[in-house]
Write a structure and sequence with these properties.
Shape: globular
Number of strands: 9
Helix content: 25-40%
Largest sheet: 5 strands, mixed
Length: 206
Amino acid sequence: QPAEIEDWVVPRYVDYWMESRAIVEPDILPFRHLDDPHAIILDVGAHTGYTAASLRNLPVSNYVCSIEPATIYNPALRRLTELDPKYSFLNVAASDRSGTVTAYNLVVNGTLIGGTSSIAGAHLQEQFADYVLTRVGESWLPFREKYEARILRLAFETMRLDDLIRPDSTWPLAHGPIVGLKIDVEGHEVQAREGAEGSRRRRRAQ
């Protein structure tokens, strides 16, 4: 159950990223060319908000909205909304259809291991064991005599990004231009991208 997981995703990390002007996610460096105070960048798969913080630290003046279904990250994302008036987030999973999806996440000694989410359990394979071994000894997975691995199962609401930004949408940013889209959703990227195809085609036609 989520309540059994140690809260290592604490808001003070967000404070550090913003105060230090850190670029935690260097893959978003090309987004600096999209600077536009009236346009929107979507951060699909926000995790703890480090990509959104990095975007602001590029710096860009765009609105930034994260799409993150796991409410366990909400304390960090809410802190980012307090520090950045042009940041917001939605607790929903981007997909190619509306409905629900089940995600499985590895928990070791009560700590959720980032980067091990799997939709429908399809990717809980040996590569996760290798990945976890590389992280042992870090602050959130310290050396111990004994390790207990468990699986956290979460049901997420899903929606198409096309539905989020359609003309009759109630989302406050629905009618602004979306100039950037980052997707990192643990193996569900193809479905998330297919759910945004209509918007991408309209953007190319403009």
